[in-house]
Every structure is written in structure tokens, then in C-alpha cells.
Amino acid sequence: MTLTRLLPFYLLPHSLFIHSLFCILLYLAFSFSNLSQAEALQASQFSHPTSNKHTSKNRVTKNRVTKNRATRKQTLRKIGFCGDTQFKRYKNISEIQGAHTASIVNKRWTSPFINQWVVVEGIVTLDKSKEYQGFWLQQDDSFRSVSNASSRTSQRASTGIFIYHKRATIKRGQRIRLLAQVAEYHGLTELKRVKALTVCASNVTLPSASLLNLPITSLAELEALEGMRVRINQNLVVSDLFGAGYGLGNYGQFAISSRLHFQPSELENAQRIRFVKEHEQINSQIKSRKNIKKLDYLLVDDGYSVRSPKFIPFPNNKGFSADNPLRIGDKLKKISAILHSYGEHYILIPESQAGDIIINTQPRPKRPKISVQANIVVASMNVENYFNGSPLSHSKRNVGFPTTRGAKSYQHFVMQTQKLVAALATMNADVVALMELENDGYGEHSAIADLTRALNKQFSIDQQYRYIVSKLGESDEKDSGYKTGPLYKKNLLGQDEISVGILYRSSKVEPIDAVSILDSTSSDKYHDSRERMQALFNDGYNRPSLLQQFSINRDDFDKSSADEEQTFYLAVNHFKSKGRPCRSTIDTIQGNCNEERTRAALALGKFINKQVADTIPVLIMGDLNSYSQEDPLLALVAAGFKNLNTFNTLNKNRANSPFFSYSFQGYLGNLDHALANKAMLPFIRSIDSWHINSVEDALLKYDTAYAEPDAYRSSDHDPLVIGIQF
Fold this sequence. Notes:
By secondary structure, the protein is an alpha+beta fold. It is built from 13 helices and 28 strands. Helix 12 runs parallel beside helix 13 (631-638). The longest helix is centred in the N-terminal third of the chain and has 34 residues, at 14-47. It is elongated and about 100 Å long. Residues 416-717 form the Endonuclease/exonuclease/phosphatase domain. Keywords: Membrane, Transmembrane, Transmembrane helix. It holds the Pfam family Exo_endo_phos.
């Protein structure tokens, strides 16, 4: 400390005193100037009230800028700078997806970073924040690994991924960087719980779409494209409309393949398929047929995740309707989409409007193909649970709804009747075998009587139908129409709620004698595993079969033909379905209850051969719930009956398009059959499975808003129509 810091200023040397005084005066002048400015500012605030608002706004803007800067700093700390691949949490999307070795059919891949928090950067390829509560992100083409462009069997990893973030405010073509958690959602690798997101650039060139061709050789090929842009430029076919919980009506989806696929046991012997499966001959042609559908099957989405959409943009922007349907067999060539996945399915989410996809619809068959040589036409049709309620009289018919298996309301029943009548009248058969009629007898208010009356309104009196009445269900004059009490029980044909029936046109054919019934009481017996005698035909599972002999009206014959009466037999059948299990062992190839169906077929062959001479023509028809190469059909073939579905003389033009009457989860096949003995074969001129049901969507069924009183989707099985020339 110096001595001068302690002396009064007036004792300082003269020059120092003058300097100090100048500094003091300068300080006072500066202070006065600031005070004047503050007073002037205060005065101006009182004279201009809006000045306070501007000052407040400036303060808020300043606070917002400060806050945004803080947020940006916080975001930078979380995700780093755009383009920084060295950031501690940064991962390429391909690393998150992981490379997978080839797997033929199994879809069980998970991310190596499951549940971890990662930073990714990529280009928004499709924004579906509203429709799917998220968007798809893909890295540009420079990130594609060498393996991604190599052979199909190499290890590859997708460079695209789905971001589950419903509050996203992003646009297609933006490059963004974000922090999120890796998750698996029903087989889909995705990022969720986005904690930070920043837009790095806009109007960025999208990654190029990968070319995808069906069929693939392994599901690993699709997994390597999950979340990425893809394009398909090949001839494709609509192969399924409602498989595995999805469907046109459920989520606005349909399936495409390179070709239609058939049930393996429709084309190959079921026992041979089992042998191949048990011996694990993976390279076998039969084994490959079993698996090929999985490798040739993609769902096409409408672009919305809404269940039961009100508008379905297929087959075009006009929307799905009864007059503008999408059907199995329709064709398309090109589609550009994002490859998504859910469960066992890979799904194409169109990049443009779904209705812009060009689908070439195929013409509906207006009528079945019947030989012009035929003078007798026999048809069979499963009428899909035709239940008519419990009508009290001809004027009070809207009673007894909902029914246990059929229509839920009288209005639905009316539409069901109209659709069935449209189909049956167009077939115009002389004899009709029916399955899945309500088993309620033969009185004037029975289901078969109702259907016959409705059908006869379409024809003149000489062309109208009658129905066969079995001995177990003979009509009773006291029948009041009620379906309860002893009379109702007496009229039942078997134990099931449904039964078979026969319609015939009396101007063309006449029944000879009473109809014979195959059930548990009339069946041959066998010894079970406990050496107990059991009926081969178990009517606790199978519906009793009818065997009726008909004579032909002479007016329809060549006058030069023999004088002897021409007759034939028709056997109508409905075997146990594959749906619910029976007590027998479950057959993984042929479905539930195969043993029961096989024994029923054995019983039917024995029943016919005992009652009918081998010189008399016999035609077996019905829903046998078995495909053409399964045990029940093979048992009938062994009993001397020829399956007309495989009769080469009739099917010369169907080499590349086998018969089918039913569609199930992308597989086509025959559950409905016609078989003839040797005496009948020379008279057969044509056979046609009229595709009015199996290829149509269930949305056209009688109980939907789309339903129209036409033949299409009148049932779930196609009718079978046989042309015969006696």
C-alpha cells in the first residue's frame, strides 16, 4: 500500500488534484445523463400504453429464443450433430435390423439391439403418422452393404425401419436424426418412444426402390427388405382375399402371388406327403409345394390401419362393390410400396394412393359350362347353413331369428334365399343335391320346402321342382309348422342340425321307390382298437347320406334307343368337416377327423355296391370335406368310382388350371366332388365347378351391406354341374 492512498485530495500535488477533479465532474455528468434517459423512458411508457406490450413481446421472444437454444443444445447432447456417425449411441439402420442367414419358411428374427436406445439418421420414405401412427425411415443408397446386392442366399440387412411416433411433424423426403428405443412388435423391428428428433435437410432424393420378384427362395430375402422401398415388375395374381385374420373386409388387404396355389393333398397323395415330411426330405418336390405359398405370398394394404374400412379402394378408385368386385384370379403387373411386416405376413404399403394400383379384373362366369350334348343336368351345392327360422304360417315368417347356424335376421334370410335362388335357377339342373340345409323335416314350413317354393317361382309349372322325402322324415298332414315337440324330433334326418336333400324336376326324371339312407344303423361294421363292433359310418359326425334311384322321362330320348327303362342312382353326401377335432388322432396333412371321413367313404362304397348292380349308372356327389388325393377320396376310388375332377377326357383344357371349389388361406382345392362308377362314365359329357363363390370375397355374403340378390357369394363353396347324355 502506498502513502498517497491516505492523504486528502486537497493536500495532493497540484497536477494530481486537477486530474482528480476532472474525473469527478465527468462521472457526475454521465450519471445525470442516464437519469434523464430513464425518466424520459418512463414518461413515454405512460403516454403510449402499447409500448408495454411491445416490451413484453420482445421479452417473450427473447425467452423463447433462449429456450429454443437450450432445447437445441439438449437435443445435440442426446443425438449429436447431423451426419455424425461417431456419436456414442449412433447406429446404422442395417445394424439395428441385423443380418440374417437364409431361412426357408420360418420368420423368427429379432434385432441384436432389442430394448436399447439408439440414434439413427435417414430419409423419410413414407409418412403415415395419421394412418399407422408412424413413418418409415431409410438410409440412402450409399449405406447399402455389398451383401445386399449379392446373391439371394447371402446374409443381408435392411436399411429401412418403421418409426412408431404418432405425433411426428415430418415430411417425405426429409433427412432426420432421432433418438428412440429398439423394439419388436409382432415380428416387426421398429423404433418407438422417440425422445429427440431433428430435421437435418429437406427435399432429399429418396433411396432407390429395391426390385422384388416372387417367389423368393427364403423369407430372409423379405426380412432383408423390411421397412424399405420396393418395386415389383412382374405378372402377379390375386391369390387370397381373407387369410389368417386379415382380409379385404377386415383391414382392406388382399394377397398377391406369382400364381394360384393349391392344397398339397389336392395334387399329391396325402400318404406320400406324410412320408416325405416324416423323412425330412427338404429338397423334395412335394415338400416344396407345401412351403411354396409362404415364399410366394404378399399382402397388399389399402394404406390405412383402420379395422373394417367403410371404403375399400380395390380393384380401383371406384371402390369395392357387388358390381365392382375384387376376385381371386384378378391380375396386376406393377406396384411400388414400402415392405412392412406383421406376424407371419409381409405387407406392401403403397407409396401412392392404393386405388391407383392397376388391377386387371377378370370377367365373372355368368353361367356354368354344360355340354350341348347333355340331356340331363345334375348339380350339387352346399347352401351354407340355410335355416329359415320358425315360421308360424305363410304370412308370419319372420319368427325364430336369429337362427343357430344360419341367418341372424329375417331380412338376412330373405337375401340369402334370393342369392341361392339366383344361383340354382341359372344352373337350371334337372336334379340338385343340396348340403347344409336346416335339419327340420319336410313339412310345408321346413327349410327345404321354403327353398323349393322360392325356386319354383322362377319357372313355369312344367319346369318346377319337387324334393325327396326320406322315410325318417315323411310329411305329416298335422304338421303345424312349429319346429318343436315330438313331431319335429321325428322328422330329423340324423343327429346334426344340418342335413342333405335332393330336388328333382319331375318333367325330366322320376324317383323309383323310396330313398335309401346310409347312417349308423345301416352301415357296415368294423372292430375298433378294443375289439368292439362299431359302425363304419358314424352319423354323430357325418350327416346321413341319401341314395335315390331315378328313371329318365322318355320324351328326352332318341326314339331309336332301347325300350328298356333308363335309370341311374344319385348318392348325396356331407362328410365331417376338418374344423373341429374328433376323438381320433389329428392328421397334420388331412386335417381333423380324417379317420371318420375315411370310414364314412368306406361305408358309402360298400353301401352302394351292395344295393346297386354294377351295370346301373351311379353318381356320387356332395361336400366330402376332403381334397382329391386324401384318404376318403382314395377309398372311393378303390371301391370302383372315378373322381370326375381328375377325369382326363373331360379336363383336357384344364392342365394348367386344376379344378377347385373352395379357397382357404391362399390355397385352392376341391372339397366338393363328383364320382361315377364304370356304368356311368360313358354318359358323362361335361363337368364344371362354377366359380361364383370360392373366388369372391365374403363381403358379398347375404348378411353384409354389400350384398345384392345375385348368385355371387351365395355360399362359400362353388356348385358342381354335370352334363349327362343318356
